[in-house]
Amino acid sequence: MNEKQKAAAGLLHNPDTDMQMLSERLRCKNLCHRYNKTEPSNLAKRYLLIKKIVGSTKKMFWIEQTFYCDYGYNIHLGEAFYSNHNLVILDCAKVTFGDHVMIGPNCGFYCAGHPLDSKRRNALLEYAKPITVGNNVWIGGNVVVLPGVTIGNDVVIGAGSVVTHDIPSGVVAVGNPCKVLRPITPEDETRTVF
Predict the structure, then answer these.
(1) Residues 1-40: pLDDT tens digits?
(2) Is 66 helix (H, G, I), strand (E, B) or coil?
(3) How far is it, in rounded angstroms, from Cα 50 to Cα 70?
(4) How much of the chain, in percent, has pLDDT values that exceed 70?
(5) Confidence (pTM)
(6) Would you give the DSSP letter of residue 56?
(7) Model confidence over 71-82: pLDDT tens digits?
(8) 151 has which bridge partners?
(9) Residue at 149 is within a domain
(10) For residue 108, which of 127, 92, 132, 89 has the smallest C-alpha distance?
(11) Is residue 45 part of a domain?
């Protein structure tokens, strides 16, 4: 089993010893560099570059500059996806966003993790676990989502949260570690802050 196959299986692997993985990362990082250096007003070029970077999109999506990711092809954007500035996705595993997802500035989605013991960590081993974000999700600024997390549908993640575990549908969740604060209720249709 090569390193890319190990990564896909969620096993410990060293992505720096696999020439295919290294080549794919460099291709993606070059495209991200081009995207981030494109004039903000050149909307058509930005749109086309994102379509070259990520694995799939629906018709409507937008990612503000700057944007960084590792491979790109593991990222799947739903309809009406929007991310504010400074989005980082370490997509060494699949990262799937549902429809109508809004992401605040300075957010990170990190599929990569490292062993706790220093011997394996110093051997540059890592693992990759997928991240899934449901439909109708709003993620506030400065949120970090860690490997293996699933966020349900109709969820609000409060700014500054660190999402370490799955979040069920229909809730507001906040904190470090991120925990369910309360369900979203009919009264929230008229409320602007929680």
Answers:
(1) 999 999 989 999 999 998 999 999 999 999 999 999 999 9
(2) coil
(3) 13
(4) 98
(5) 0.94
(6) B
(7) 999 999 999 999
(8) 133, 167
(9) yes
(10) 89
(11) yes
Q: Which amino acid type is present at position 153?
A: N
What is the domain range of residue 166?
3-181
Q: Is residue 190 part of a domain?
A: no
| Partners of 182 in beta bridges | 172
Residue 118 has pLDDT above 80, yes or no: yes
d(CA 165, CA 124): 25
CATH number at residue 57: 2.160.10.10
What token pair was written down for 15?
A: 């992505």
Alpha-carbon separation of residue 177 from 24, 46, 122, 144, 193 (angstroms): 33, 35, 27, 10, 21
Candidate list 33, 85, 100, 114, residue with the active-site label: 114
Number of domains in the chain: 1
114 part of the active site? yes
In a domain, 127, yes or no: yes
Strands 127-128 and 112-113, how do they pair?
Answer: antiparallel
The confidence band for 193, taking pLDDT boundaries of 50, 70 and 90, is low
183, HSE (Cβ side, Cα atoms, 13 Å): 5
